[in-house]
Amino acid sequence: MTENNDLWFDPSKCLINGEWVAPVGGEYLALENPSTGEVIGQIARGQAADIDAAVGAAQAARDGEWGRWSALQRGRMLTELGRLVLTKTEELARLEAQDVGKPLKQARADAIALARYLEFYGGAADKLHGETIPYLEGYTVYTLREPHGVTGHIVPWNYPMQIIGRSVGAALATGNACVLKPAEDACLTALAFADLARQVGLPAGALNVVPGLGGEAGAALTGHGGVNHISFTGSVMTGSMVQASAAKNVVPVTLELGGKSPQIVFEDADIDAALPFLVNAGIQNAGQTCSASSRILIHKNVYDQVVERMAARYGELRVGPAMDDLDVGPLISAKQKGIIDGFLDLGSDLEAAGRGVLENAPDGGNYVRPTLFAGVDAHHALAQDEIFGPVQVAIAFEDEAEALAIANGTDYGLVASVWTANGARQMRMAKAIRSGQVFINNYGAGGGVELPFGGVGKSGHGREKGFEALYGFTTLKTVAAYHG
Ligand code: NDP
Protein backbone atom coordinates (compact mmCIF):
# COMPACT_ATOMS: atom_id res chain seq x y z
CA MET A 1 0.00 0.00 0.00
CA THR A 2 2.86 2.41 0.59
CA GLU A 3 6.40 2.77 -0.73
CA ASN A 4 7.39 0.78 2.31
CA ASN A 5 6.98 -2.84 1.28
CA ASP A 6 7.94 -4.33 4.60
CA LEU A 7 4.97 -3.35 6.74
CA TRP A 8 4.97 -5.62 9.76
CA PHE A 9 1.38 -4.78 10.73
CA ASP A 10 -2.00 -4.31 9.07
CA PRO A 11 -2.66 -0.55 8.80
CA SER A 12 -6.39 -1.00 8.19
CA LYS A 13 -7.06 -2.63 11.56
CA CYS A 14 -7.28 -1.65 15.20
CA LEU A 15 -5.05 -3.24 17.83
CA ILE A 16 -7.27 -4.36 20.69
CA ASN A 17 -6.29 -6.79 23.42
CA GLY A 18 -3.12 -7.73 21.56
CA GLU A 19 -4.97 -8.70 18.36
CA TRP A 20 -5.33 -6.93 15.03
CA VAL A 21 -9.08 -6.61 14.49
CA ALA A 22 -11.26 -5.00 11.82
CA PRO A 23 -13.42 -2.08 13.01
CA VAL A 24 -16.82 -3.27 14.23
CA GLY A 25 -18.67 -1.01 11.77
CA GLY A 26 -16.62 -2.28 8.80
CA GLU A 27 -15.92 1.28 7.64
CA TYR A 28 -12.60 2.73 6.51
CA LEU A 29 -10.99 6.11 5.84
CA ALA A 30 -8.71 6.94 2.92
CA LEU A 31 -5.06 7.57 3.68
CA GLU A 32 -3.53 10.40 1.64
CA ASN A 33 0.09 11.21 0.95
CA PRO A 34 0.34 14.98 1.63
CA SER A 35 3.28 15.32 -0.77
CA THR A 36 1.21 14.23 -3.78
CA GLY A 37 -2.44 14.12 -2.72
CA GLU A 38 -2.55 10.45 -3.76
CA VAL A 39 -4.55 7.90 -1.78
CA ILE A 40 -2.04 5.32 -0.54
CA GLY A 41 -4.22 3.05 1.56
CA GLN A 42 -6.95 2.94 4.14
CA ILE A 43 -7.27 2.96 7.89
CA ALA A 44 -10.02 1.77 10.20
CA ARG A 45 -12.84 4.17 10.99
CA GLY A 46 -13.14 3.13 14.60
CA GLN A 47 -16.33 4.05 16.45
CA ALA A 48 -17.76 3.89 19.94
CA ALA A 49 -18.03 0.08 19.85
CA ASP A 50 -14.31 -0.26 19.05
CA ILE A 51 -13.41 2.20 21.81
CA ASP A 52 -15.61 0.27 24.21
CA ALA A 53 -13.77 -2.96 23.36
CA ALA A 54 -10.39 -1.21 23.74
CA VAL A 55 -11.30 0.26 27.13
CA GLY A 56 -12.56 -3.16 28.25
CA ALA A 57 -9.26 -4.74 27.16
CA ALA A 58 -7.30 -2.05 29.01
CA GLN A 59 -9.35 -2.59 32.18
CA ALA A 60 -8.70 -6.33 31.97
CA ALA A 61 -4.95 -5.70 31.50
CA ARG A 62 -4.93 -3.33 34.48
CA ASP A 63 -6.64 -5.98 36.62
CA GLY A 64 -4.61 -8.84 35.13
CA GLU A 65 -1.02 -9.68 34.26
CA TRP A 66 -0.01 -6.12 33.31
CA GLY A 67 -1.27 -4.77 36.62
CA ARG A 68 0.97 -7.23 38.46
CA TRP A 69 4.19 -6.32 36.63
CA SER A 70 6.81 -4.72 38.85
CA ALA A 71 8.24 -1.30 38.05
CA LEU A 72 11.48 -3.04 37.12
CA GLN A 73 9.71 -5.27 34.60
CA ARG A 74 7.93 -2.31 33.04
CA GLY A 75 11.17 -0.37 32.84
CA ARG A 76 13.04 -3.24 31.17
CA MET A 77 10.26 -3.73 28.64
CA LEU A 78 10.24 -0.02 27.72
CA THR A 79 14.03 0.02 27.41
CA GLU A 80 13.92 -2.99 25.11
CA LEU A 81 11.14 -1.37 23.09
CA GLY A 82 13.32 1.73 22.74
CA ARG A 83 16.13 -0.44 21.34
CA LEU A 84 13.76 -2.09 18.87
CA VAL A 85 12.44 1.32 17.75
CA LEU A 86 16.04 2.40 17.09
CA THR A 87 16.61 -0.58 14.82
CA LYS A 88 13.44 0.39 12.93
CA THR A 89 14.29 4.08 12.62
CA GLU A 90 14.50 4.04 8.85
CA GLU A 91 11.23 2.15 8.31
CA LEU A 92 9.39 4.35 10.81
CA ALA A 93 10.81 7.51 9.22
CA ARG A 94 9.71 6.46 5.73
CA LEU A 95 6.24 5.60 6.97
CA GLU A 96 5.94 8.98 8.68
CA ALA A 97 7.29 10.84 5.65
CA GLN A 98 4.63 9.30 3.41
CA ASP A 99 1.80 9.63 5.89
CA VAL A 100 2.52 13.08 7.34
CA GLY A 101 4.74 14.75 4.70
CA LYS A 102 7.74 15.25 6.99
CA PRO A 103 11.10 15.54 5.25
CA LEU A 104 12.95 12.29 5.96
CA LYS A 105 15.58 13.76 8.27
CA GLN A 106 12.87 15.28 10.47
CA ALA A 107 10.97 11.98 10.49
CA ARG A 108 14.17 10.15 11.46
CA ALA A 109 14.70 12.60 14.32
CA ASP A 110 11.16 11.83 15.53
CA ALA A 111 11.79 8.07 15.52
CA ILE A 112 15.01 8.59 17.47
CA ALA A 113 13.17 10.84 19.93
CA LEU A 114 10.52 8.13 20.39
CA ALA A 115 13.29 5.67 21.27
CA ARG A 116 14.81 8.23 23.66
CA TYR A 117 11.47 8.69 25.48
CA LEU A 118 11.24 4.94 25.92
CA GLU A 119 14.81 4.77 27.27
CA PHE A 120 14.11 7.67 29.61
CA TYR A 121 10.83 6.34 30.96
CA GLY A 122 12.21 2.79 31.00
CA GLY A 123 15.01 3.99 33.26
CA ALA A 124 12.67 6.10 35.38
CA ALA A 125 10.00 3.45 35.98
CA ASP A 126 11.54 2.11 39.20
CA LYS A 127 12.78 5.50 40.46
CA LEU A 128 9.33 6.92 41.23
CA HIS A 129 8.28 6.50 44.83
CA GLY A 130 6.19 7.95 47.59
CA GLU A 131 7.36 9.49 50.88
CA THR A 132 7.11 8.97 54.59
CA ILE A 133 5.52 11.87 56.46
CA PRO A 134 6.28 12.70 60.12
CA TYR A 135 2.96 12.76 61.96
CA LEU A 136 1.51 12.33 65.45
CA GLU A 137 3.02 10.01 68.03
CA GLY A 138 1.93 6.44 67.38
CA TYR A 139 1.44 6.87 63.61
CA THR A 140 3.45 5.89 60.56
CA VAL A 141 2.32 7.74 57.45
CA TYR A 142 3.47 7.15 53.90
CA THR A 143 2.33 7.85 50.38
CA LEU A 144 2.00 5.49 47.42
CA ARG A 145 2.19 6.59 43.79
CA GLU A 146 -0.33 4.49 41.90
CA PRO A 147 -1.36 4.40 38.24
CA HIS A 148 -4.67 6.05 37.33
CA GLY A 149 -5.77 2.80 35.69
CA VAL A 150 -6.90 3.28 32.09
CA THR A 151 -5.44 6.30 30.31
CA GLY A 152 -6.80 7.75 27.05
CA HIS A 153 -4.33 9.35 24.63
CA ILE A 154 -5.53 11.68 21.88
CA VAL A 155 -2.55 12.38 19.66
CA PRO A 156 -2.43 14.94 16.81
CA TRP A 157 -0.88 14.57 13.37
CA ASN A 158 2.14 16.86 13.69
CA TYR A 159 4.53 14.74 15.80
CA PRO A 160 2.85 11.35 16.26
CA MET A 161 5.95 9.46 17.31
CA GLN A 162 7.23 12.07 19.74
CA ILE A 163 3.85 12.62 21.37
CA ILE A 164 3.21 8.89 21.68
CA GLY A 165 6.67 8.54 23.26
CA ARG A 166 6.08 11.22 25.84
CA SER A 167 2.52 10.30 26.79
CA VAL A 168 2.18 6.54 26.24
CA GLY A 169 5.81 6.03 27.39
CA ALA A 170 5.19 7.76 30.72
CA ALA A 171 1.77 6.14 31.16
CA LEU A 172 3.12 2.61 30.65
CA ALA A 173 6.14 3.29 32.87
CA THR A 174 3.77 4.05 35.74
CA GLY A 175 1.63 0.97 35.11
CA ASN A 176 -1.39 2.42 33.33
CA ALA A 177 -3.14 0.56 30.52
CA CYS A 178 -3.54 2.80 27.47
CA VAL A 179 -6.08 3.42 24.74
CA LEU A 180 -4.58 5.52 21.95
CA LYS A 181 -6.62 7.38 19.33
CA PRO A 182 -4.19 8.74 16.74
CA ALA A 183 -5.21 11.54 14.35
CA GLU A 184 -7.01 10.31 11.26
CA ASP A 185 -4.29 11.95 9.12
CA ALA A 186 -1.40 10.26 10.94
CA CYS A 187 -2.03 6.70 12.09
CA LEU A 188 0.72 4.60 10.56
CA THR A 189 3.53 5.04 13.06
CA ALA A 190 1.08 4.70 15.96
CA LEU A 191 0.02 1.31 14.66
CA ALA A 192 3.60 0.31 13.85
CA PHE A 193 4.71 1.29 17.35
CA ALA A 194 1.93 -0.69 19.02
CA ASP A 195 2.95 -3.77 17.09
CA LEU A 196 6.59 -3.33 18.14
CA ALA A 197 5.39 -3.13 21.75
CA ARG A 198 3.57 -6.41 21.24
CA GLN A 199 6.77 -7.93 19.83
CA VAL A 200 8.79 -7.10 22.96
CA GLY A 201 6.17 -8.76 25.15
CA LEU A 202 3.88 -5.98 26.36
CA PRO A 203 0.91 -7.91 27.79
CA ALA A 204 -2.29 -7.93 25.72
CA GLY A 205 -4.54 -4.95 26.44
CA ALA A 206 -1.82 -2.76 27.98
CA LEU A 207 -1.74 -0.68 24.78
CA ASN A 208 -4.71 -0.55 22.43
CA VAL A 209 -4.93 1.60 19.30
CA VAL A 210 -8.19 2.65 17.65
CA PRO A 211 -7.84 4.88 14.57
CA GLY A 212 -10.85 6.90 13.48
CA LEU A 213 -12.34 10.38 13.38
CA GLY A 214 -11.95 12.79 16.28
CA GLY A 215 -15.68 13.39 16.54
CA GLU A 216 -16.39 9.64 16.65
CA ALA A 217 -13.61 7.47 18.12
CA GLY A 218 -11.99 10.48 19.87
CA ALA A 219 -15.21 11.71 21.45
CA ALA A 220 -16.15 8.15 22.46
CA LEU A 221 -12.81 7.78 24.24
CA THR A 222 -12.88 11.10 26.11
CA GLY A 223 -16.47 10.50 27.24
CA HIS A 224 -16.03 6.84 28.20
CA GLY A 225 -16.82 6.11 31.84
CA GLY A 226 -14.07 3.48 32.04
CA VAL A 227 -11.24 5.92 31.31
CA ASN A 228 -9.43 7.36 34.34
CA HIS A 229 -7.14 9.99 32.78
CA ILE A 230 -6.89 11.74 29.42
CA SER A 231 -3.83 13.15 27.72
CA PHE A 232 -4.73 15.47 24.82
CA THR A 233 -2.54 17.43 22.41
CA GLY A 234 -4.19 19.58 19.75
CA SER A 235 -6.22 22.73 19.22
CA VAL A 236 -7.71 24.96 21.92
CA MET A 237 -11.23 24.37 20.62
CA THR A 238 -11.02 20.58 20.65
CA GLY A 239 -9.06 20.64 23.92
CA SER A 240 -11.81 22.52 25.72
CA MET A 241 -14.37 20.04 24.33
CA VAL A 242 -12.23 17.16 25.58
CA GLN A 243 -12.02 18.75 29.02
CA ALA A 244 -15.80 19.27 29.13
CA SER A 245 -16.38 15.68 28.07
CA ALA A 246 -13.97 14.33 30.71
CA ALA A 247 -15.54 16.57 33.35
CA LYS A 248 -18.78 14.59 33.09
CA ASN A 249 -16.89 11.60 34.48
CA VAL A 250 -14.70 13.79 36.76
CA VAL A 251 -11.57 12.57 35.02
CA PRO A 252 -8.26 14.51 35.09
CA VAL A 253 -7.02 15.86 31.78
CA THR A 254 -3.63 17.02 30.55
CA LEU A 255 -4.03 19.56 27.75
CA GLU A 256 -1.19 20.68 25.49
CA LEU A 257 -2.70 23.20 23.11
CA GLY A 258 0.05 24.95 21.21
CA GLY A 259 1.12 28.56 21.39
CA LYS A 260 2.39 31.76 19.86
CA SER A 261 5.90 31.44 21.19
CA PRO A 262 8.23 34.45 21.01
CA GLN A 263 11.99 34.68 20.62
CA ILE A 264 13.24 38.00 21.96
CA VAL A 265 16.43 39.39 20.46
CA PHE A 266 18.09 42.18 22.44
CA GLU A 267 20.66 44.53 20.94
CA ASP A 268 23.52 42.78 22.78
CA ALA A 269 22.57 39.31 21.50
CA ASP A 270 24.98 37.08 19.62
CA ILE A 271 23.06 37.37 16.38
CA ASP A 272 25.19 34.83 14.52
CA ALA A 273 24.33 32.24 17.15
CA ALA A 274 20.66 33.23 17.23
CA LEU A 275 19.94 33.22 13.49
CA PRO A 276 19.61 29.47 12.83
CA PHE A 277 17.29 29.15 15.86
CA LEU A 278 15.20 32.16 14.85
CA VAL A 279 14.29 30.66 11.47
CA ASN A 280 14.38 26.91 12.20
CA ALA A 281 12.06 27.19 15.17
CA GLY A 282 9.47 28.69 12.82
CA ILE A 283 9.75 26.45 9.79
CA GLN A 284 10.59 23.05 11.29
CA ASN A 285 7.89 20.54 10.36
CA ALA A 286 6.45 23.24 8.06
CA GLY A 287 5.62 25.30 11.16
CA GLN A 288 3.16 22.63 12.34
CA THR A 289 4.73 22.49 15.78
CA CYS A 290 3.04 23.35 19.07
CA SER A 291 6.28 24.95 20.26
CA ALA A 292 6.98 26.70 16.94
CA SER A 293 8.40 30.17 17.41
CA SER A 294 6.07 32.27 15.31
CA ARG A 295 6.92 35.71 16.79
CA ILE A 296 10.38 37.23 16.56
CA LEU A 297 10.66 40.30 18.80
CA ILE A 298 13.73 42.39 17.89
CA HIS A 299 15.26 45.45 19.54
CA LYS A 300 14.92 48.47 17.24
CA ASN A 301 18.73 48.96 17.03
CA VAL A 302 19.31 45.54 15.46
CA TYR A 303 15.89 45.09 13.84
CA ASP A 304 16.89 45.80 10.23
CA GLN A 305 19.98 43.63 10.43
CA VAL A 306 18.13 40.64 11.94
CA VAL A 307 15.19 40.86 9.53
CA GLU A 308 17.50 41.15 6.53
CA ARG A 309 19.51 38.10 7.58
CA MET A 310 16.38 36.07 8.35
CA ALA A 311 14.93 37.06 4.96
CA ALA A 312 18.12 35.85 3.25
CA ARG A 313 17.70 32.46 4.94
CA TYR A 314 14.04 32.37 3.86
CA GLY A 315 15.16 32.93 0.27
CA GLU A 316 17.25 29.75 0.51
CA LEU A 317 14.55 27.51 2.03
CA ARG A 318 13.59 24.71 -0.35
CA VAL A 319 10.06 23.32 -0.16
CA GLY A 320 9.08 20.00 -1.74
CA PRO A 321 8.05 16.35 -1.27
CA ALA A 322 8.96 14.62 1.98
CA MET A 323 11.02 11.98 0.19
CA ASP A 324 13.20 14.71 -1.41
CA ASP A 325 14.22 15.59 2.15
CA LEU A 326 14.36 19.37 1.66
CA ASP A 327 14.01 22.06 4.35
CA VAL A 328 10.22 22.14 4.36
CA GLY A 329 7.66 19.51 3.30
CA PRO A 330 3.96 19.87 2.51
CA LEU A 331 1.32 20.68 5.10
CA ILE A 332 -0.60 17.72 6.48
CA SER A 333 -3.82 18.24 4.51
CA ALA A 334 -5.68 20.40 2.01
CA LYS A 335 -7.75 21.66 4.96
CA GLN A 336 -4.60 22.85 6.75
CA LYS A 337 -3.31 24.46 3.54
CA GLY A 338 -6.61 26.37 3.29
CA ILE A 339 -6.12 27.68 6.85
CA ILE A 340 -2.55 28.83 6.14
CA ASP A 341 -3.49 30.42 2.79
CA GLY A 342 -6.11 32.39 4.74
CA PHE A 343 -3.44 33.69 7.14
CA LEU A 344 -1.13 34.57 4.23
CA ASP A 345 -4.00 36.59 2.69
CA LEU A 346 -4.36 38.48 5.98
CA GLY A 347 -0.79 39.70 5.48
CA SER A 348 -1.23 40.74 1.84
CA ASP A 349 -0.81 44.44 2.73
CA LEU A 350 2.29 43.75 4.88
CA GLU A 351 5.91 43.64 3.84
CA ALA A 352 6.82 39.97 3.24
CA ALA A 353 10.51 40.17 4.08
CA GLY A 354 11.27 36.68 2.88
CA ARG A 355 9.68 33.74 1.09
CA GLY A 356 10.85 30.19 0.47
CA VAL A 357 11.23 28.49 -2.89
CA LEU A 358 8.84 25.79 -4.11
CA GLU A 359 10.92 23.06 -5.68
CA ASN A 360 9.52 20.12 -7.65
CA ALA A 361 6.29 20.43 -5.62
CA PRO A 362 3.63 18.15 -7.20
CA ASP A 363 0.31 19.88 -7.97
CA GLY A 364 -1.73 17.65 -5.66
CA GLY A 365 0.53 18.30 -2.63
CA ASN A 366 -0.31 20.74 0.15
CA TYR A 367 2.53 23.22 -0.29
CA VAL A 368 2.83 26.83 0.85
CA ARG A 369 5.78 29.21 0.65
CA PRO A 370 7.38 29.78 4.06
CA THR A 371 6.87 33.48 4.75
CA LEU A 372 8.36 36.04 7.10
CA PHE A 373 6.24 39.16 7.61
CA ALA A 374 8.11 42.25 8.79
CA GLY A 375 6.94 45.31 10.68
CA VAL A 376 3.91 43.55 12.12
CA ASP A 377 1.85 45.24 14.83
CA ALA A 378 1.81 43.12 17.99
CA HIS A 379 -2.02 43.14 17.95
CA HIS A 380 -2.40 41.99 14.34
CA ALA A 381 -4.07 38.58 13.93
CA LEU A 382 -0.83 37.25 12.44
CA ALA A 383 0.90 38.14 15.73
CA GLN A 384 -1.88 36.82 17.96
CA ASP A 385 -3.33 33.62 16.46
CA GLU A 386 -1.62 30.25 16.29
CA ILE A 387 -1.02 29.87 12.54
CA PHE A 388 0.45 26.34 12.51
CA GLY A 389 2.25 26.83 9.21
CA PRO A 390 5.69 28.10 8.12
CA VAL A 391 4.88 31.74 8.84
CA GLN A 392 6.72 34.07 11.22
CA VAL A 393 6.23 37.71 12.11
CA ALA A 394 8.99 40.18 13.06
CA ILE A 395 8.03 42.84 15.62
CA ALA A 396 10.30 45.73 16.74
CA PHE A 397 10.54 46.81 20.40
CA GLU A 398 12.08 49.80 22.19
CA ASP A 399 13.14 48.41 25.56
CA GLU A 400 12.88 45.49 27.98
CA ALA A 401 9.50 46.55 29.35
CA GLU A 402 7.97 46.69 25.90
CA ALA A 403 9.54 43.37 24.90
CA LEU A 404 7.99 41.76 27.98
CA ALA A 405 4.58 43.30 27.36
CA ILE A 406 4.55 42.02 23.78
CA ALA A 407 5.89 38.58 24.79
CA ASN A 408 3.11 38.21 27.37
CA GLY A 409 0.49 39.86 25.15
CA THR A 410 -1.24 36.80 23.70
CA ASP A 411 -3.63 34.21 25.12
CA TYR A 412 -0.87 31.59 24.97
CA GLY A 413 2.20 30.71 27.05
CA LEU A 414 4.05 27.59 25.95
CA VAL A 415 7.67 28.45 25.11
CA ALA A 416 9.79 31.61 24.90
CA SER A 417 13.42 32.44 24.42
CA VAL A 418 15.59 35.40 25.33
CA TRP A 419 18.72 36.26 23.36
CA THR A 420 20.96 38.58 25.38
CA ALA A 421 24.46 38.63 26.89
CA ASN A 422 23.21 40.51 29.97
CA GLY A 423 22.92 38.00 32.83
CA ALA A 424 20.67 40.15 35.01
CA ARG A 425 18.29 40.68 32.09
CA GLN A 426 18.28 36.94 31.39
CA MET A 427 17.10 36.31 34.97
CA ARG A 428 14.53 39.14 34.99
CA MET A 429 13.00 38.05 31.70
CA ALA A 430 12.97 34.33 32.55
CA LYS A 431 11.04 35.15 35.71
CA ALA A 432 8.61 37.62 34.16
CA ILE A 433 7.67 35.76 30.98
CA ARG A 434 4.41 33.81 31.35
CA SER A 435 5.28 30.51 29.76
CA GLY A 436 5.82 26.82 30.50
CA GLN A 437 9.42 26.91 29.26
CA VAL A 438 11.94 29.74 28.82
CA PHE A 439 15.20 29.26 26.96
CA ILE A 440 18.16 31.59 27.33
CA ASN A 441 20.42 31.96 24.30
CA ASN A 442 18.92 28.87 22.65
CA TYR A 443 15.50 27.63 21.62
CA GLY A 444 13.99 24.24 22.34
CA ALA A 445 17.20 22.70 23.75
CA GLY A 446 17.16 20.12 20.96
CA GLY A 447 13.80 18.68 21.99
CA GLY A 448 14.74 17.94 25.59
CA VAL A 449 12.99 14.66 26.41
CA GLU A 450 14.12 15.25 30.01
CA LEU A 451 12.60 18.74 30.30
CA PRO A 452 9.06 19.18 31.68
CA PHE A 453 6.83 20.68 29.00
CA GLY A 454 3.38 22.26 28.99
CA GLY A 455 1.65 25.57 28.97
CA VAL A 456 -0.11 28.32 30.84
CA GLY A 457 -3.20 30.19 29.67
CA LYS A 458 -4.69 28.77 26.45
CA SER A 459 -1.56 26.70 25.89
CA GLY A 460 -3.10 24.24 28.34
CA HIS A 461 -2.29 22.72 31.70
CA GLY A 462 -0.43 19.76 33.14
CA ARG A 463 3.13 18.77 32.27
CA GLU A 464 4.44 16.04 30.04
CA LYS A 465 8.05 15.07 29.29
CA GLY A 466 10.77 14.68 31.89
CA PHE A 467 10.30 13.03 35.27
CA GLU A 468 7.44 15.42 36.01
CA ALA A 469 5.16 13.53 33.61
CA LEU A 470 5.31 10.50 35.90
CA TYR A 471 3.51 12.48 38.61
CA GLY A 472 0.77 13.37 36.13
CA PHE A 473 0.22 9.75 35.18
CA THR A 474 -0.10 8.64 38.80
CA THR A 475 -2.40 9.38 41.69
CA LEU A 476 -1.17 9.75 45.26
CA LYS A 477 -2.53 7.61 48.07
CA THR A 478 -1.80 8.50 51.71
CA VAL A 479 -1.62 5.61 54.18
CA ALA A 480 -1.82 6.52 57.89
CA ALA A 481 -1.14 3.56 60.20
CA TYR A 482 -1.84 3.89 63.94
CA HIS A 483 0.23 1.43 65.90
CA GLY A 484 0.39 3.18 69.26
P1 NDP B 1 -7.70 19.00 16.63
O1 NDP B 1 -7.41 19.61 17.92
O2 NDP B 1 -9.13 18.97 16.20
O3 NDP B 1 -7.15 17.50 16.59
C1 NDP B 1 -6.20 16.99 17.52
C2 NDP B 1 -6.59 15.57 17.90
O4 NDP B 1 -7.88 15.57 18.51
C3 NDP B 1 -6.70 14.62 16.72
O5 NDP B 1 -6.28 13.33 17.10
C4 NDP B 1 -8.19 14.63 16.44
O6 NDP B 1 -8.61 13.49 15.72
C5 NDP B 1 -8.75 14.66 17.85
N1 NDP B 1 -10.12 15.15 17.96
C6 NDP B 1 -10.80 15.98 17.13
N2 NDP B 1 -12.04 16.20 17.60
C7 NDP B 1 -12.16 15.48 18.75
C8 NDP B 1 -13.21 15.30 19.71
N3 NDP B 1 -14.41 15.88 19.57
N4 NDP B 1 -12.98 14.51 20.77
C9 NDP B 1 -11.77 13.91 20.95
N5 NDP B 1 -10.76 14.03 20.05
C10 NDP B 1 -10.95 14.82 18.99
O7 NDP B 1 -6.81 19.73 15.55
P2 NDP B 1 -6.92 19.76 13.96
O8 NDP B 1 -6.28 18.52 13.44
O9 NDP B 1 -8.32 20.02 13.50
O10 NDP B 1 -6.00 21.03 13.61
C11 NDP B 1 -6.55 22.33 13.72
C12 NDP B 1 -5.61 23.28 14.43
O11 NDP B 1 -5.31 22.78 15.73
C13 NDP B 1 -4.24 23.47 13.80
O12 NDP B 1 -4.27 24.40 12.78
C14 NDP B 1 -3.42 23.92 14.97
O13 NDP B 1 -3.59 25.29 15.17
C15 NDP B 1 -4.01 23.17 16.14
N6 NDP B 1 -3.23 21.96 16.47
C16 NDP B 1 -2.33 22.06 17.50
C17 NDP B 1 -1.54 20.98 17.78
C18 NDP B 1 -0.51 21.05 18.87
O14 NDP B 1 0.48 20.31 18.82
N7 NDP B 1 -0.71 21.85 19.88
C19 NDP B 1 -1.61 19.72 17.05
C20 NDP B 1 -2.63 19.71 16.02
C21 NDP B 1 -3.38 20.81 15.76
P3 NDP B 1 -8.83 13.60 14.12
O15 NDP B 1 -7.63 14.31 13.58
O16 NDP B 1 -8.91 12.20 13.70
O17 NDP B 1 -10.08 14.39 13.93
Brief digest:
This protein is of the alpha/beta class.
Account of the 3D structure:
- The chain has 484 residues and is α/β, with parallel strands linked by helices.
- It is 38% helix and 21% strand.
- The protein contains 16 helices and 22 strands.
- The protein has a seven-stranded mixed sheet, with helices on both faces.
- Strand 8 (177-181), helix 7 (188-199) and strand 9 (207-209) form a beta-alpha-beta unit.
- The longest helix has 21 residues, at 104-124.
- The termini are far apart.
- The mean pLDDT is 96.
- The structure holds NADPH dihydro-nicotinamide-adenine-dinucleotide phosphate.
- The site of NADPH dihydro-nicotinamide-adenine-dinucleotide phosphate has 26 residues, from helix 8 and helix 9.
Keywords:
484 residues; alpha/beta; Aldehyde Dehydrogenase, Chain A, domain 2; 16 helices; binds NADPH dihydro-nicotinamide-adenine-dinucleotide phosphate
What's the shape? Answer: globular
Per CATH, the architecture of the largest domain is 3-Layer(aba) Sandwich
By oligomeric state, this entry counts as: single chain
* Overall mean pLDDT: 96
Rg calculated over all Cα atoms:
23 Å
The CATH superfamily label of the largest domain reads Aldehyde Dehydrogenase, Chain A, domain 1
Flag low-confidence runs.
Answer: none
The side-by-side strand order for the widest beta sheet comes to 15-17-18-13-12-19-20
Assigned CATH class of the largest domain: Alpha Beta
Helix content: 25-40%
- Report the end-to-end length measured between terminal Cα atoms: 69 Å
Bound molecules: NADPH dihydro-nicotinamide-adenine-dinucleotide phosphate
Largest sheet descriptor: 7 strands, mixed
